[in-house]
Amino acid sequence: MGLPERRRRRAEHVPAARRKSRAGVLIVAIGALMVLLDAIGFLVLMALEGREHSLVTAIYWAITTMSTLGYGDITFDSDGGRLFSVWVLLSGVVYMLVLLPFFVIQYMVTPWLDRRRTSRTPRKVPAALRDHVLLVGSDAVTQAFAARAERSQVPAVLVVEDPIEAGRIHDQGRQVIVGPLDSAMTYRNAGADRARLVVSTLTDTANTNVAFTVRQVGGDVSVAVTASKPVSVDVLGLAGSDHVLELGAVLGREMASRVLGSTGRVHRIGSFGDTFIAEAAARDTALVGMTLGEAIGSLSSCVRILAIMRKGRLRPLKPELQITETTVLILAGEADELAAYDEQFQVSEQSEDPVIILGGGRVGRSASRELTAQGIPNTIVEQLPGRVENSYSALEGTASYTVADGDAADQRVLRRAGLDRASAVLVTPRDDDLNVYLTLFCRRLRPELQVVSRATYERNVATLYRAGADSVLSYATIGATDLWNHAGLSRRVLVAEGNELFLAPRPSSLVRRSVRNSEVHRRTGCHIVAVAEEDGTLRYDTESIPSSPGKLLLLGDRHAERLFREAYLKRRRLRPTGPVGHNR
């Protein structure tokens, strides 16, 4: 939440409080009016029966009847009076069971609970806490980073301004402090001068203010921020940010890098030291029809096959596994080794088939620029005429892209854009519902097509896979991975949404076990894909896990990672974090 947004909410707080006060007064007034009217009715009906009572007695009768106490000391003799008593009883039950409890809970119990939660929310971190990561804001990116830090036992503290939200995060067991995000005192209390990294994922204007404020407290701390607009990158750098992550552009490039193409060439997706991690499609290459054992034996270079994927799912690395047209190889090797793989298996006499990009927003335009730089022809399908051309004026005359105006959900528009001869479709709109629809639509039109989809919310990733996506990438995962690697923590490479390559210390219980140990996968869901040195350099000269200090390169999702750490690294902690203290 940015600073202008918070000011707007502060301005709205007073009218909201007034509305609550008016509602409370209205509920009390309704109860008082009901008692008064019932008392008047009581006096009138009693007078018709020839009995006189005071107003105090009438109010007493109305309250005891509405509350269902009904002492029975005052009763009607006539049928009309008894019917009136029933009416008073029923209306009183509605008021006592509905309106009055709502008033008590909404205006008495809930504020008390909020105040209690606010009083328990930490305002300051312990003085001994060092090398932690400060996460300013509480969006999908910071939540994904915090969850990853929790699994890796890396101290991370969220800094939020809303005490109620801070209390909720604190109740989840995560470290959080509350304070104004534009106050230097907040970052002093958060230990920004002792932190490893400060991350801010607010709006561009709010991130500028945060960077300036953090620089007042810790001049040497590294500051990483996100930017939603390209023009904000320079401004955020001038404000003191060391790393500016333009999420839209990064997500577009990552989606483009997942396009496997139609020639079998290698696509780099990350690195560990001098070792690059890459994807390569088996489609139309000499590998199709081979078993995994035969493929490994046919490699002319030292490239190592780390994993096999089909439709975004990992397959067990068994020598008898058949390589098909839909198989994707996850490879590891140095630059010259990957080049040798390309020379051996790439279909060089065949040009790349075009790629269709659905959506001409920031993500779609970034993906188009990346594909264009790789020499892959692409077509952007955009519903708003003129949106893409204006953004691409700098590339006129050099870009190998075309634009098809129209609705991406229209089959005729997709056919006109070249869907029948395309090798892949990138689904880039912000709306997850639309992305699920487009993914399913394209899969039905071209079952063999590669579909790479974008997810705004992590909860929709599984749905997109079920809709037919071969690969899904989300803002939260891309942003958290980039910021995690920038923090200098154990490096990670995102293979596909939900599957990451990550480093973990070598457990003593696995020493001298085979790298292809199936027990680890059965127990945790993690695949051990390689042995690494302390500096992250991968080793290919060993098939067993050595006893010397080092790391393991693992592949798995967040649940598998948590199970692995709990099963094999439970007693190893990177640093004691301790609870965040209170400001007393």
UniProtKB/TrEMBL annotation:
One Pfam family in the UniProt entry: Ion_trans_2
Record carries keyword Transmembrane: yes
* Localization terms from the record: Cell membrane
Q: Which residues span the membrane? A: 25-48, 54-72, 84-109
Primary subcellular site in the record, as a coarse category: membrane
Instruction: Say yes or no: keyword Secreted present.
Output: no
- Could you tell me the membrane topology recorded for this protein? Multi-pass membrane protein
Tell me the leader sequence span. none
Q: Which keywords are on file for this protein?
A: Membrane, Transmembrane, Transmembrane helix
Q: Where is each RCK N-terminal domain found? A: 352-473
PROSITE patterns according to UniProt = RCK_N
**What is the official name of this protein in its record?**
Trk K+ transport system NAD-binding subunit
- Source species of the chain: Brachybacterium fresconis
